[in-house]
Amino acid sequence: MNPVEEAGRIAAAVREATGVADVHGGRFGGVATLGAGRRVAGVRVTEKDITVGVTVRMPFSSGEVAAAVRAAAASPGRPVHVLIADVEGPVPSGRDSEDGKETGS
Question: What is the CATH number of domain 3-88?
Fold first, then answer.
C-alpha cells in the first residue's frame, strides 16, 4: 500500500476512535502525507513511523485517546505517535452536534 492510501485508511479509522472528533494537521499543517495530487491532513506516514494529529472531545483522558488512536492506526513494525492538537467542548445536552438545533419532541 502506498503512503497516501495508508494515510487515508488510518484517518478514516482514527475518526471512529473513542474520544476523537477528527484528525488534525497540527498548528502549521505539518502532520500530513503528500502524494501525487493528494494530501491527507492529520496523518503522516513514513517508512519509520506514523504520526496522527487529532481533535478530541471533552471530557477525555489523553491516555485513553492515545491508546484508541494507536490501535486504529496500528502498523506492524512502526511506532504510532499521537498529537492531541485541539480540544472540542462538549455538546450541550439536547442539542444536535451538527447544526446546534434542539433535538427531541
Answer: 3.30.70
